[in-house]
Design a protein that fits this description.
Layout: E1 2-7, E2 10-17, E3 20-23, E4 26-34, E5 40-45, E6 48-56, E7 61-66, E8 69-77, H1 78-88, E9 97-100, E10 105-110, E11 117-118, E12 123-129, E13 132-137, E14 142-147, E15 154-155, E16 160-166
Antiparallel strand pairs: 1-2, 1-8, 2-3, 3-4, 4-5, 5-6, 6-7, 7-8, 9-16, 10-12, 10-15, 11-14, 12-13, 14-16
Amino acid sequence: MKYFVTVGERVVEVDVDGDQLRVDGTAHTAHLEAVPGTPEQRVIVDGVATSVAVDRFDDGSWRLVHLGAVHDLAIEDERSRHIRSLVGAGASAAAGGVLKAPMPGLVVRIQVAVGDRVEPGSALVVLEAMKMENELKATMAGVIIAVRVEVGAAVEKGVVLLELGPAD
């Protein structure tokens, strides 16, 4: 599975296959073990061991502390990254926009209603596709002006799920 790890302004591509990693094209062998009773993980990369304190936050971000240095990062798998790119395409804060289904699926939850104000990252709709739930999030601030689907609806790729007007 491929992941994109954002640290500050830098995005690092990490391809994981069991204990084999490829970080920005460079191969490594890695192993991770939890340290019981602590937020620490023992990390062994290419035979060299170290400990890293790991915190995961509700917004999906991560904080790593290694040798006293704090690193805030975001981790996104390639599938989520692709979905985000499809959902966010073409929307602008000034003009409002639409949220389209990035894939065929079943509407499991609608997390907003007409008139709700949303911020970037706010959960909007949850679609089930290939037995996985995919939470679609706002890519801009705005107000929900129309919800075009209902829970339980089967939708095709490209169907408009909701409309978002500009933030006041």
